[in-house]
Design a protein that fits this description.
The protein has a 5-stranded antiparallel sheet with strand order 1-8-9-10-11. A 5-stranded mixed sheet has the order 2-28-29-30-31, with no helix packed on it. Strands 3-34-33-32 form a 4-stranded antiparallel sheet, with no helix packed on it. Strand 32 and strand 33 form a beta hairpin. Helix content is about 5%, strand content about 45%. With about 425 residues, the protein is mostly beta strands.
């Protein structure tokens, strides 16, 4: 997937330094796909709906529809809703919201505030879009609600000053993983007293506060899911996995996961919860009510750090610790197959039964699941960019939307669009 060479002895240290990936949201809202956008798709699992996508790519990759150069630094992916593409970039230490129509016309640009300018500078979070409201948290912990039609800021909160959040300068840029449910916007300041906070989406006022375990927030992304007739907010801090009652923020159970603020999303499917520890991946089998979960399996090689896995059928796909891209059995954790993947991070999303694997150097591979593992059915390299980059791609309306370094690229991957263009 890439010709990037890494030193295995420094893998964990380097991986912890590359604190990039972000943003998130909930499952289960009443909004349609067209006016709702969240981290890694409708269920926050990296799988996007849609059909009639190209099953192979031509030499050089899919057709580039448009691109925009000038986002500045940062690691936000795109949010796509209401026929608009919205993302965040940092220029001269100030972050801005950018909004484009699906043909690349810039509709508006909104100035936010000064942002984190450390080693990995800029905003890490991806905007959350729900109807005419959007939400974003900057790398310095400023939370904004904005109008998606015009871009104006509706309200804002300072998660560090107002909720005693952890100063991001102590550990990198602020990673707040926003979750939407009903009228709630759930954020994670990460402080001891107000670890997790639910705000009213319309006004930004506090609905409930939770101490959680009073530990520093992890750099992973939480998720919201229904299990056994109850809705839970699953969250990871520095040493624990936490299940909160979405109604009032009370802690239902905690599960130790070992130390480490790792960039790996919590992945829920059919009563099981996948997460990363310091050196391995783990699948938890969830129990009823407040009963603690049980470990279903651990896997020492499967380690999709920052890239996050995808699940197709009963197989999970993602990066290993070393120079491999793995096919893993969801039920047992056993490795079924592997292909070479020398990049340190490979981000995986899926659509129409195919895997879109995008590595930290900008190399893209289209992978087709087969009985023996995966088959490469297309590849190309995103042009430009001089830095490590692994913002997660988005698939929407037959388009592949990719943030790489300073640029936003939109490719046509629909067979219908290709036929129309070829008339």
């Amino acid at each position: 997937l890439s010709d990037y060479q890494t030193n295995p002895n420094n893998f964990v240290m380097k991986s912890q330094l590359i604190i990039m990936l972000l943003a998130l949201l909930s499952t289960g809202t009443s909004f349609s796909q067209s006016d709702f956008s969240q981290w890694r798709g409708p269920n926050r699992d990296g799988t996007y709906p849609g059909a009639n996508l190209l099953q192979t790519w031509p030499s050089g990759g899919p057709q580039l529809l448009w691109k925009f150069d000038g986002l500045g630094v940062g690691y936000a992916s795109a949010a796509v809703a209401n026929e608009r593409v919205i993302t965040v970039g940092t220029l001269d230490s100030i972050s801005y919201l950018f909004c484009f129509d699906m043909m690349g016309v810039q509709l508006w640009k909104t100035r936010l505030s000064r942002d984190f300018m450390g080693v990995y500078a800029g905003t890490y979070s991806t905007p959350v879009i729900r109807g005419d409201q959007g939400f974003i948290t900057t790398g310095l912990g400023m939370l904004y609600c904005f109008n998606t039609a015009k871009g104006n800021v509706v309200w804002s909160r300072d998660l560090i000053k107002e909720f005693d959040g952890i100063n991001p300068l102590e550990k990198g840029g602020y990673l707040d993983n926003l979750v939407v449910d009903g009228n709630l916007l759930i954020c994670a300041p990460g402080g001891a007293a107000r670890n997790i906070v639910a705000l009213d989406q319309a006004t930004g006022t506090v609905v409930w506060e939770s101490k959680g375990t009073s530990e520093v927030s992890g750099y992973g992304t939480p998720t919201l899911a229904d299990h056994k007739g109850r809705k839970y907010y699953f969250y990871q801090d520095e040493t624990s996995i936490i299940a909160l009652n979405i109604a009032d923020g009370s802690v239902v159970w905690t599960h130790p996961r070992g130390w480490g603020t790792y960039v790996g999303s919590l992945f829920f499917h059919d009563g099981y919860l996948f997460y990363l520890t310091e050196m391995s991946s783990v699948l938890l089998k969830l129990a009823d009510g407040s009963n603690p979960p049980q470990v279903a399996w651990t896997q020492s090689d499967f380690f999709p750090l920052q890239g996050d896995p995808v699940l197709i059928g009963n197989r999970m796909y993602g990066k290993s610790k070393g120079k491999k891209y793995l096919t893993v059995d969801w039920a047992t954790g056993q490795t079924i197959a592997s292909i070479p993947a020398t990049a340190m991070v490979v981000t995986s999303v899926a659509g129409d039964g195919l895997i879109y694997a995008y590595d930290i150097d900008g190399n893209f591979s289209l992978l087709k699941p087969v009985e023996s593992g995966v088959e490469t059915v297309g590849s190309f390299k995103i042009p430009g960019g001089t830095k490590y980059h692994c913002s997660h791609p988005v698939i929407s309306n037959g388009k592949l939307i990719v943030r790489h370094d300073n640029s936003l690229f939109v490719y046509t991957i629909s067979t219908t669009d290709i036929k129309i263009a070829g008339k």
